[in-house]
Amino acid sequence: MKFPKDGMDSEALFADMRERKKQDADWEGGRTWSLLYPAGKEVDDVLRKANELYVFENALNPFRFPSLRQMEVDVVAMAADLLHGGEEAGGCMTSGGTESILMGVKSARERARVERGVTRPELLAPVSAHPAFAKAAHYLGLEHKQIPLGPDLRADVDAAASLINDQTALVVGSAPNYPHGVVDPIPELAGLAAERGISFHTDSCLGGFLLPFYERLGEPVPPFDFRVPGVTTMSADVHKYGYATKGASVILHRDAEHLKKYQLFMYDRWPGGLYGSFAMAGARPAAPIAAAWAILHYLGESGYVRLAGVIRDTVKKLRAGIERETALRVFGEPVMSVMSFGSDTLDIGAVGDVMDDRGWHLDRQDNPKALHMMVSPQHAKVADAFLADLHAAVAQHGDSRGVEARYS
Q: Which residues are paired to 124 by β-bridges?
């Protein structure tokens, strides 16, 4: 496409955009099982207004936009409080989980160099850890070593103990991991790191704004946050189960005074004066910060607990329906809203193709082959329809073993 010579009439412009948008997945109808986390029209309305209010500002310079600076400080403080960071905890907002992870890895690398004299830094993360850790290792010059998983699909602690060494700059655990929704043995992994003065990062991009509210509902939640000795940094995405618009995440340090300096980049050898940044980006959009601040205040603890209850009940219904299909099984023991399921007898990819044809969007996974889903509050409205279509898809590709009446 060539650069347009003349401007386009706004009415025609937006008509064209609306037509293009028809090709996209129907997330508002609950047809997507990743990427978005719709929580209802009232939440959407708050997000739209907050975004519109700060659509033009630039969060690069907090001295020019002090309201943004204070909102970012507030969001970080609320996240730290939620994850039991204490008065010493602190951090900053980023554009998403990947950037939060990059900053966590950068901080650990710098700390290892300064405090332990590490010259060939290594990053030790489970096979199931988010690819952002591999990306961070690639970008920042760390050797990426992978911890194998045990039969429960959690990081194998004994294997981790054999891999850790004097050059390890960071050990990682997920709460939960993306592929299977299980929580790694955070206390054991963090303990291995702490014994050697090594940084430990809990990747709670998925769980940071949901697991605490599951705990308030009385659900069993494995230890994962700053209550665990040895956890030095955490990542948590406000734009996932915090329900903010993209991209809003938080990187947190247990002891901000001691550790946050390793995250900072400072530069003054140019004519433009002192340049400092705690994140990868320079110019930063203001709208995600404002939306995150707005939605945390709008929902409050009671609102998040209510939405967590909707998710929990929907997950129970979906998991029960999946497991009633005797050809299917859920992998591991997912702790919240993320899970994957597959089959020992069916081509699960073919089942997924049928679900695609019926308008559902499930991600595919390997090792083991599986269909993957992340449940949001919106899915409560479509759980029965999803299970009916899943039953039909299973029946199309194998023996459904007499359960046809259950979803009729």
A: 145, 171
pLDDT computed for residue 211 by the predictor: 98
- The SS3 call for residue 149 is strand
Tens-digit pLDDT profile for residues 299-335: 999 999 999 999 999 999 999 999 999 999 999 999 9
Query: Which domains are assigned to the chain?
Result: 48-295 (3.40.640.10)
CB 152 within 8 A of CB 333: yes
CA–chain centroid gap for 408, Å, is 36
pLDDT, tens digit, 9 for 90 and up, residues 24-83 = 878 878 888 888 888 889 999 999 999 999 888 788 777 788 899 999 999 999 999 999
CB 174 within 8 A of CB 336: no
Nearest to 126 by CA among 170, 191, 94: 170
Give the closest residue to 295 by CA, choosing from 80, 42, 40, 46.
46
Residue 105 identity (one-letter amino acid): V
- CA angle, corner 26, sides to 21 and 29, nearest 5? 140
Local structure of 94: helix, strand or coil: strand
Cβ atoms 169, 122 nearer than 8 A = yes
From CA 237, how far away is CA 43, in angstroms rounded? 17
Residues lower than pLDDT 50 in the chain: 399-408
Q: Rg of the Cα trace of the chain? A: 22
Are residues 123 and 142 in contact, defined by beta-carbon separation less than 8 angstroms?
yes
Question: Which amino acid, one-letter code, is at 113?
Answer: R
Token pair listed for 95? 């554009």
